[in-house]
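Morning F.,

Quick status update on the modeling queue. The single chain you submitted on Monday has been processed. Sequence for confirmation:
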Amino acid sequence: MLKLGEGRPARLQYLSGSYRVLQQGDHVTCAVTGTRIPLQNLRYWSHELQEAYVSGEAAAARYTEMRALGRL
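Structure tokens below.
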């Protein structure tokens, strides 16, 4: 059976506590590490920056970086 979006990156709108799928896919890419994150494993993202993160550590590193640059 053909699954829509299989093997393709999804495009998401990150909301506070959830996200909305804008374009079907099966993964997103971590903004810090470049690691592919299957949608079923996506737990960390920023609605302010509209980015996904592979782990809490990656999210914390990005927030620290953006605060230092004055973007948060």
